[in-house]
Amino acid sequence: MRALASLFALMALPVYAQNGAAQPGAGLNLNVMSMLLSLLLVVGTIIALAYMLKRFNPNMANNDDFKVIRTLPLGTKERLLVVEIDNKQHLLGVTPGAINYLYELETPLKEREMAPLAKQLSHILNTKKKT
Fold first, then answer.
1. Do 86 and 101 touch, CB atoms closer than 8 A?
2. Which residues form a coiled coil (predicted)?
3. Would you say the pTM of this structure is higher than 0.90?
4. Rounded mean pLDDT of 43-57?
5. Mean pLDDT throughout 18-29?
6. 49 is in which domain, residue-wise?
7. In this structure, are 52 and 67 located in the same domain?
8. 121 CB-side CA count, 13 A
9. Are residues 76 and 51 located together in one domain of the fold?
10. What region does 80 belong to: left with phi over 0, alpha with psi -120 to 50, or beta?
11. Together in a domain, 84 and 113
């Protein structure tokens, strides 16, 4: 703890030199305040990006009737989707102009496990959406 306080004091030395007879600790308070505001800005940006990801990513919004099992991007706007409807898996081709049914899978694919952070963010966003 003393090392951290010493580090902050050393960081504030140029502020003392510039202000001459400045109040002790005034530069330190400004540095801490600047750091906290920057931290809040970064956390807010992360939350905003998570909200946008949830809103525009169909893979995180699965329900019981319709599940997206796998997604394979083929280009910037084209993709293959494996979806599960009524316990049967179907392969779909998705383009900006159309959705084409391609094939019914005989052996079902396993659903990929989401990363723990993605699960937590999805849970947080789903609870906020319901309230």
1. no
2. none
3. no
4. 85
5. 59
6. 1-56
7. no
8. 18
9. no
10. beta
11. yes
